[in-house]
Design the sequence.
């Protein structure tokens, strides 16, 4: 009687198929987790801009700026004006947007901050007053 050594082709195919399926599921889940992490980064940046406007800029000036930038809001990290893909706020392709409204001579009464998210609806913050 012969002793059987090694694996049959069928056993190898089953193991390879199972390993391939596990890798596909892993990478699909990783893509989703990365997108959710980028969405969280966007929300953090919008919240930082919002609180800098509401707690710092508006009380000191009595109006909102027509545009925002690191120079207008120096209290927050300048990197927060750049989205996860490297586009600056307000530039073409950016997932961040600042829309001022009711402006006169660069002094605005309203604004909307928006982040375009990948896994959820847009994240929007509007002025308090």
Sequence:
């Amino acid at each position: 009687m012969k002793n059987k050594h090694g694996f049959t082709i069928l056993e190898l195919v089953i193991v390879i198929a199972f390993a391939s399926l596990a890798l596909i599921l892993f990478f699909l889940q990783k893509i989703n987790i990365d997108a959710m992490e980028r969405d969280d980064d966007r929300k953090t940046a919008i919240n930082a801009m919002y609180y800098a406007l509401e707690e710092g800029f508006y009380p000191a000036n009595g109006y909102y700026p027509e545009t925002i930038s690191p120079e207008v809001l120096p209290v927050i990290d300048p990197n927060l004006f750049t989205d996860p893909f490297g586009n600056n706020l307000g530039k073409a392709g950016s997932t961040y947007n600042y829309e001022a409204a009711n402006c006169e001579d660069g002094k605005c009464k309203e604004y909307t901050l928006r982040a375009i998210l990948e896994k959820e609806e847009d994240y929007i913050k509007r002025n308090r007053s």
About this structure: The first helix runs from residue 9 to 61. Residues 40-126 form one domain. The mean pLDDT is 93. Residues 114 and 124 are 5 Å apart (CA to CA).
